[in-house]
Specification:
52% helix, 11% strand, 9 helices
């Protein structure tokens, strides 16, 4: 996949990983529509990117979990830049801590972290199959391969994001629709401190579980790994190399892995 001249949409792009991916795409010659629910932050990011990449970037505030908003994003990108070649389903939310999480917190996590991806694929894949190609990049998390101490909603919804990306690749990957799934651990974004919804001890536990497991990377460093994986058409994107080893331990001996995670949780509390 050549990123140059591609038309891309990046959700959750007011800051963090989304803004970093948009910047790297633009540097490689893509034309990019960025979107986020936070209109003020999105406008600031759009101005910053436009100053360097005038004519190649546009911003539109939207809810990535809304089918009507997704249609609007696709229509806008198409009218401004041309047919959409790449979609980066990057918008995400933290959510409730554990069994005390409310139904509303579960619903929000599932809508944004999973159903937003499903709805985007519904709208894009038929056209990609007709055109002979397209690229879907799902931002999940290492929590989607392992687990997230301190947040049940984040863990379950990110597992769902990984599962949907796998299904998409299995079902359409040999028909021109390429799929990658980004699964980082700690990245220096607002999401890192928002893993627990209550902002109290449980939220702090979730953050410390991530920062204690490996390095906290810069968003632009993560975006570099994303561009490399897309150009190689590689499914799993692991900016933290140790995640692969953690996953291997989990698969090879699930009970031992759970016991180790229990020990790690106790060390944090």
């Amino acid at each position: 996949m050549q990123v140059g001249n591609a038309v891309a949409i990046v959700t959750g792009a007011a800051g963090g990983i989304g803004a970093a991916i948009a910047q790297r795409l633009l540097e490689h010659g893509a034309r990019v529509l960025i979107t986020d629910r936070d209109a003020d932050r999105l406008a600031a990011t759009t101005r910053r990117l436009t100053a360097e990449f005038s004519g190649a970037v546009s911003g539109l505030a939207a809810d990535a979990a809304s089918e009507s908003d997704l249609r609007k994003l696709i229509d806008t990108a198409t009218s401004e830049f041309g047919p959409v070649d790449m979609f980066f389903a990057n918008a995400g939310v933290g959510g409730g801590p554990g069994l005390d999480a409310t139904d509303a917190q579960w619903e929000q996590a599932l809508q944004v972290n999973v159903m937003a991806h499903v709805r985007a694929a519904r709208l894009l894949v038929p056209d990609w199959l007709e055109r002979g190609g397209g690229y879907f990049v799902s931002t999940a998390s290492a929590a989607g391969l392992l687990t997230q101490i301190g947040s049940a909603t984040y863990t379950v919804s990110k597992h769902g994001a990984v599962g949907f990306a796998e299904w998409l690749a299995v079902t359409y990957g040999d028909r021109g629709v390429r799929v990658s799934c980004l699964c980082p651990m700690g990245v220096d974004t607002a999401m890192l401190t928002g893993l627990g919804a209550d902002g109290g001890p449980v939220g702090d536990l979730a953050t410390r579980a991530v920062t204690g497991a490996g390095a906290v990377l810069r968003p632009l460093d993560v975006a570099d790994r994303v561009i490399e994986a897309v150009e190689d058409e590689r499914f799993l994107i692991l900016p933290h190399a140790e995640v692969r080893e953690f996953l291997h331990r989990k698969v090879s001996d699930h009970d031992r892995w759970i016991a180790g995670m229990q020990r790690y949780r106790r060390s944090l509390t």
